Amino acid sequence: MTERSLRVVLAEDSVVLRDGMVELLGARGCEVVATAGTADELLAAVARHRPDVAVVDIRMPPTHTDEGIRAAVEIRATTPEVGVLVFSQHIETVWASRLLAGGATGVGYLLKERVARTSEFVDALRRVAGGGTALDPEVVDRLVRGGRGGRLNTLTPREREVLELMAQGHSNRSVAERLVVSGRAVEKHVAAVFTKFGLPATEADNRRVKAVLAYLSETGG
Length: 221
Description:
Elements: E1 6-11, H1 15-27, E2 30-36, H2 39-49, E3 53-56, H3 67-78, E4 83-88, H4 93-101, E5 107-111, H5 118-129, E6 133-135, H6 137-145, H7 157-167, H8 172-179, H9 183-196, H10 207-219
Parallel strand pairs: 1-2, 1-3, 3-4, 4-5, 5-6
Helix pairs in contact: 2-3, 3-4, 7-9, 7-10, 8-9
């Protein structure tokens, strides 16, 4: 059974880079349904095509400051069913926090120079389109270093490591593999995070998402 083609809107003001990405994504089984060179074009394309995911650069015309990520925040607010993957050379911690404030699902933030293979990028696209999270470790680290602390200060170093990996979109199994510990140990650390963040177990609530949101809200400045 073949995997369904991923429908993508691509916002990138560099024509050369944009055309190259269209070709690469097409070769990886993605369908780029529209491209955009400005934030307004991006918003119009998303409204028209309702893609699985929008790939957004932060700095776009006319000022090349934060038009792209502002548009990404608007997409999250108006069409939450569309995944948003920010793909940029820059880290904007304030806007990153706003982007993630609507929920730690269906969102990503990757740095261009740190994506080594096209397959990694497409995997992140599919994860975001499926409601997952794809955050570059450097982005998370910047949020941590710029943060205020709060409940994070109650965590042990290992609990904080586990939470950082959760914020990057890793499952418990993936966390265990990266930290070279048992799955049971990870479960204990995750449970401790939930307890320290005051997140009781209920059928209706996703405590993992809430923990990541609490983490991001305290580290985003």
